[in-house]
Amino acid sequence: MNVSNVADRIRELIEDSTNDLLAEELDSYHEADLADLFNYLKPEERLVCFKLLNYDKAADLIEYLTPQLQVELLGELDEEIASKIITKLPHDAAADVLGDMEDDESETYLDKLPEKFSQEVRELLTYNEDTAGGIMNPSVLTVSIDMTVKEVLSTIRTKAEKDNTELYYIYAVDKQNHLLGVVSLRKLLTSPTTKLVSDIMIRDIVKLHVDDFSDYIVDVFLKYQYNALPVVDLYNRLKGMITWDDVHDLFEEETTEEIYQSSGISTEIVDEDEILSGNVMNAVIARLPWLFITLIGEFLAVNVANCFNATLSALPIIAIFMPLLAGLGGNIGTQSITLMVRGFSTGQVTLNSALYHILREMVIGLLIGLVFGALVTLTTWGWQHNVELGIIVGIAMAINMTMATVIGTFTPFALKTFNIDPAVASGPIIATAIDVIGLAIYFTLVSVFLINHAI
Amino acid sequence: MNVSNVADRIRELIEDSTNDLLAEELDSYHEADLADLFNYLKPEERLVCFKLLNYDKAADLIEYLTPQLQVELLGELDEEIASKIITKLPHDAAADVLGDMEDDESETYLDKLPEKFSQEVRELLTYNEDTAGGIMNPSVLTVSIDMTVKEVLSTIRTKAEKDNTELYYIYAVDKQNHLLGVVSLRKLLTSPTTKLVSDIMIRDIVKLHVDDFSDYIVDVFLKYQYNALPVVDLYNRLKGMITWDDVHDLFEEETTEEIYQSSGISTEIVDEDEILSGNVMNAVIARLPWLFITLIGEFLAVNVANCFNATLSALPIIAIFMPLLAGLGGNIGTQSITLMVRGFSTGQVTLNSALYHILREMVIGLLIGLVFGALVTLTTWGWQHNVELGIIVGIAMAINMTMATVIGTFTPFALKTFNIDPAVASGPIIATAIDVIGLAIYFTLVSVFLINHAI
Description:
The structure is a homodimer.
Chain A: H1 3-15, H2 19-27, H3 31-40, H4 43-52, H5 55-64, H6 67-76, H7 79-87, H8 91-99, H9 103-112, H10 115-126, H11 132-135, E1 142-143, H12 149-163, E2 169-173, E3 179-184, H13 185-190, H14 197-200, E4 208-209, H15 214-224, E5 228-232, E6 238-243, H16 244-262, H17 273-276, H18 280-307, H19 309-314, H20 322-346, H21 354-384, H22 387-417, H23 422-454
Parallel strand pairs in A: 1-2, 4-5
Antiparallel strand pairs in A: 2-3, 5-6
Helix pairs in contact in A: 1-3, 3-5, 5-7, 7-9, 8-10, 15-16, 16-23, 18-23, 20-22, 20-23, 21-22, 22-23
């Protein structure tokens, strides 16, 4: 779908006030496409369109919209109508929408919702929104273990339709709602209708606990690759289920955090949503900590350079190669960190393989360092007509790049050993370390071989 | 599961040669846990364990293993046994396993597989493995539109069981296998048994084409959030389906590529799998191109510095602040790039919002730059007892950081406008640009205000 073309047509329909045509056109789009369109339209245009949708379509669309747009659109509607749309949402989506509103606003809606619905949503709102309890949908289809396949199928026909339950697995529970077994729809549909649930259910259940945090939930889903997992409380009582589309959103958030952290943008203090847009001060706060650590580190580098003040005064030309050495050391070191940090998060790198990776990266650093050292030597020689300077810069380059890969590989392993998240701390620390050590090596080489030699 | 504890117990069982106990123990684990365990064990231990699994469990496990381990384990088995395990795999998994083998090796297995199975796998192997055709599972349950719900349910009971078909949606096709409609299992189970497929099927079908590439497939799944999508050929004939667990793997690969590219590790020339381990030369090739571009860029920076050779000779102390300016400019600029590049891939940043983001980042850069500039001025003043030098370095710092955020935000937008992937090109280019421009500003400030003033 070309959003801007569709938006142009929709705008024309709005201007012409041909509401019937517009309503028909909007109804013909998939809600995911409508969400794209709504992101593109201006607020007043969105509202006109939203009011033309029937309640079911409006509820479907709400699930695909960003929290900001959800609150914006529902807030503009008559409260009665908004409540009706919210009632059409799955419980977990309703809780998400209401959780994003101001407290008094969400109270207004909760009071207007059907009592059972409102009660279940209220319970969801008591859970931390980053835990399984806050993410799960409490509306789950349960059966008892002594039902036959035939009975289960007839239960589905009546209960699932009425409760708008998502269907992936059927959960077998006892009278107190303790989770006893899981039956996949596939198993249900391919088993003889006279079989009992207890005959076809799986008893070794992969499940989540209401207090499990989102990063753990993502890991479990990625590992076991189920479509949905049951969520239980401390006493194994079934509280709800989490489906893969919830996890996709979590997974995307986790990835964003991982990428942000790799460039020293903290997602611990400020929520990841508020860094890219919104209040500027939030963005400043998220970005300051690691910049400040870099500042301190770079003052160390300045100090190291200052120790070689005499060298610099004797041969000022050496200063011009500082950015070259720091830049390439920083780049290749960052590559090594990136590979290790990503490897940890996909599971391809473990603490056991530390030595292998450190040695492997060292070889890579040395190979590339020798090539680049030679290039730098030749270029400097040809350009400054100073073969000795060229050789020193070239050697410094080779040492610098090798050292950068080793530090870049070693640091994530060291942090991981002490249970510090390598994604958080590696980047800025290493860029500075490479500046400090790289410059010390370079100036030492110059002092020993060029200055003494010249004097 | 604590893998190392389990592995210790398994090793003891292997040493004691208590094969019955070991087989029972292994059979009690979920195949995802077995995969973790197999990753942890030594090759010879893995093989002992693998041989003790029954064919079904072995096939389940194979699906969770890395391509390297799949080939390793099957290669060690008797060909007859390996073929039997491969026959138990879904067609797409079998094609993946055989596609990772040497051609003559996979031919041996293909010849030993049942003819229909082997033929379907051969067809899968003709598709590019990064396209929907290479990813899909051809085994799909199809029905005709004039069947009743009751007939469909009985078809499922017989056909799905036999063919080991995954069940998410039922696809309605005509005699020539053209895709006409989709029925979800939920809809099927909640509809009256006398209804016709044509009454309950969805006709506006979200589908994939056999030639669609993996990045597009990931986008479609993320947008529409379906569990499975049908794959059709040019003439809308149903060829297979792709399920969300296939997409999870693709999504993880895409994320890895995005993260690698952000630090200048190319995944265009060398496959992303081969960068972290395997042949060292592949890793060197993946990392060289951007390092080389950085090298050229940094020589530009060296050249800029060289233009101010007279300034450096007159006041060598200014050289020691070079890493400080370059380091912090580079860091804050990288933060801006990271935010924009990630924003493009999640859809939170679009070309329309360029001006907003550039201005917003400029404000952030200016705020942080002023704070850091002040800090640097005070520190330098207190340390070098030179208030003028302190002020110049502080001003250079503020300008440098502001400029870094602007360049870091502008460049991804500019690249995107020309349809160049900003993830690929931004990082190394900008680090260099900031070095070049930042140093030019600093040296100019020094020349104008310090040197002329001093002279």
